[in-house]
Design brief:
Shape: globular
Number of strands: 13
Radius of gyration: 21 Å
CATH topology of the largest domain: Rossmann fold
CATH class of the largest domain: Alpha Beta
CATH architecture of the largest domain: 3-Layer(aba) Sandwich
Helix content: 25-40%
Largest sheet: 6 strands, mixed
Structural class: alpha/beta
Strand content: 25-35%
Number of domains: 3
Bound molecules: guanosine-5'-triphosphate, zinc ion
Length: 311
């Protein structure tokens, strides 16, 4: 991740004794850091656990394969996950989010839209991956369901990890090149199948990480980063991480729904919440069908949730 050259240059100045690396997995306050060809176990000082997978960090080596995190480089982006009504760090420096959905089993619009809100608010571009196109009976209905996202301008890529592995791999590679991509999806969508196509030795890497971080049986519950080349990485996030959206202000929320944009500033009240106000341009667009009801309902729900935040 990031240019190795700039890391080298930086490490020559003030922080001469520090080395740099990329956080490739996190488990509690234990981090696995890739530094060149080497993987090290790093910890943070004290109780701090503000390091995320994808972070570029400076560490002090304490033994041949261990270190202490000293500083975190400025992040380009930051995604949060939801944890007991709080937002915790999920991944740093992600440039694009791929949401894997499938013809079967069905996906949940609520989760897809929450992921899109997370991406928009973090400044991360979002794509939808429709997997299992070989289940042709369910294809027309699924495409129809995805229309709402296509109309919003989110690219949709159709693949079949099982029936067309080579084509699927070939479709992915140019999309991933030069990007830090996080892959998310509800259980059963085929995310693991896709990761295994893209990273053939992913299983080995996961076992290595799990052993290094001593995650015990939690082998599939941690987020990990696979460095594909110097400028390309892919992050696999287990299950369907519910994104932490509690930290979003009302202003950030309304801007995270890209279809609201033409209407913002056109409501009767300048501080309109777009919930029940008279002469609300957003509500009028919902009524006329220009904004999908499902999307507006989620906006209202997220506004409610962020008002319930615990901190
Ligand atoms: N028909 C079909 N089945 C597929 C395809 N891709 C994956 N599957 C199957 O879908 C099931 C779920 O795939 P996984 O890759 O394990 O899905 P996952 O999203 O990682 O699911 P979890 O491990 O539960 O998070 C498996 O039985 C796969 O063999 C595909 O393109 N077509
Ligand atoms: Zn309004």
């Amino acid at each position: 991740m990031g240019g190795r050259k700039s890391q080298e240059k930086n490490s020559k100045d003030a922080s001469a004794a520090l080395e740099s690396g990329t956080v490739i997995a996190a488990h509690g306050r234990h981090y696995l850091v890739q530094a060149g060809e080497q993987k090290l176990q790093c910890v943070t000082r004290g109780k701090k656990s503000d390091v995320a997978v994808g972070d570029l960090i400076r560490f002090k080596r304490t033994s041949p394969n261990q270190g202490v995190v000293e500083t975190i480089d400025e992040r380009k982006t930051l995604l949060y996950r939801s944890d007991q009504y709080k937002s915790k760090l999920l991944a740093a420096n992600v440039t694009q989010l791929f949401i894997v959905v499938a013809t079967e089993p069905g996906f949940t619009d609520d989760l897809v839209s929450r992921a899109l809100v997370a991406a928009e608010s973090a400044g991360v571009s979002a794509h939808l991956i429709l997997n299992k196109t070989d289940i042709v009976e369910a294809l027309p209905k699924t495409r129809e369901r995805l229309q709402v996202y296509a109309r919003l301008g989110y690219p949709i890529h159709e693949v079949s990890a099982r029936a067309e592995p080579e084509q699927t791999r070939a479709a992915f590679m140019p999309l991933l090149e030069g990007q830090n991509t996080i892959l998310i999806g509800q259980s059963g969508m085929g995310k693991s199948s896709l990761i295994n196509l893209i990273i053939p030795d992913a299983d080995i890497a996961v076992r290595e990480i799990s052993a290094a971080l001593d995650t015990g049986k939690h082998t599939t519950t941690f987020t990990r980063l696979y460095q594909m080349d110097e400028n390309t990485a892919i992050i696999d996030s287990p299950g369907f991480q519910e994104f932490g959206l509690y930290q979003l202000s009302e202003g950030m929320l309304e801007r995270a729904f890209r279809e609201f944009a033409p209407y913002l500033g056109h409501c009767k009240f300048y501080n309109c919440h777009h919930l029940t106000e008279p002469s609300c341009a957003v509500l009028e667009a919902v009524k006329s069908g220009e904004i999908a009801t499902m999307r507006h309902q989620l906006y209202a729900q997220l506004l409610h949730e962020s008002s319930q935040k615990l901190y």
